[in-house]
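I'll show a sample.
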Amino acid sequence: MINNPTRTPRLGRVTRVAALFCVGAVLAAGCGRDDDSESSDETATTSAEQTGETAAFINPDEDCTNYEGTKGIEGDTIKIGTVRPASGPYSIYDKVTSGVQAYFDSANAKGGIKAGDGKTYKVELIKEDDAYDPSKTPGAVKKLVEQDGVFAIVGQIGTANNLAVRDYMNENCVPSIALGTGSTEWGKANEYPWFIGGLPSYATEAHAFVDYLKENMPSATIALLYQDDDFGQAYQKTLKKEVEGSDLTIVAEQPFNPLTETSSESKVAQLATSKADVFFVGIGGTPCPRTLTFVPAEWTPTTYVSIPCSAKTAMSLASGKDEGVFTGQFVLDPGSAGDQSNPKMQAFMTDGAAVGVSKDDLEGGILSAGWGFAALFAEGLAQTDEVSRAGVMNTLFSLEDTNFGLMRDEATSNTDGDTDPWVLEDLRISKRVAGEWVEASPMVSYDGMSNDFVGE
């Protein structure tokens, strides 16, 4: 059973309902997304609640200037794009995109994805490489949107990379679905409604581990290695917030710059001098698992690695130093013998092999993340009766008790664009034992709470 802490009630989608009640030029001037007039919203909210009416989270008539709702759909084919690091020190994440490709190859081989409008669509994926350098991301995304004419971006990798194009995507009303990042920025759907994450919030992840520490190591000291960008700073800020009022203490921290540094060895050496009880590794790419190899023998902290670092393929780079480390989990682990008996995992293995994916990649855990990103897009198609850019996004921002892709059976997705835009908020803490992730604490639902955990 999922444990569910006291949860903020899910309110109705009323933020944009105001737009439907604005009439006349004078009122219309106050009905944009950045409306400063509280009275208009309050009047609309009251009217909506009295009539029981609801409106779609995104109203392209109000939110978009030159809306092209079906751009990228040609006949029974939907063209989508993605940007990932196919080169550079973070190229390990190219396997995520291989998972996106494999999912759609498998679906296409079976005839396509049946959407809620009754039609069946095949999906064409166009890939671009930004080498994890956010300065290269805008050019790659603009090519996909303006030259290739994609319907949406799916599974784009990197926090800074997605932030680099967030304004552009929103101004053009092009969906970016299943972001390969858990940045707390994706909780701002009311400001940026064309982005929806594909990972749990890094703040929720950090909160879940602190919950674990409060129960099992309530007086622990913590050393933090964090990626010096929005990705790692989300962990840093949340950890500082979460330890307040407890006996947990952050005694040392070191930043790691993914663009200018290739090794974390010197940072680990400095953190080790703290002799902290806990080592939190809030970085990604190959530098993350290699960080474990730099921990000196005389320092034996309880170590936590970020979810983006936890795949079997990544852990194989730790030279055996992954034994006993912790992480957060919300999906089945294809490298775990126990999870391989799950029917969803068996279907993944069978379907992936059928489109040419190797056993090593299927069990590696990185490719399966991309499979999940693609499955979220497919879920949006399957549940929407209007296959348009806004239609799919509105569907994804109104999921109810949905389980898709390789989510663990005890996890569900519930979203509300106005109040709860996070698709994945159920987490368990797991420990690495003999090459597999084993439950260390049961699944907890933080449904509707992710934005509450964000640190300043």
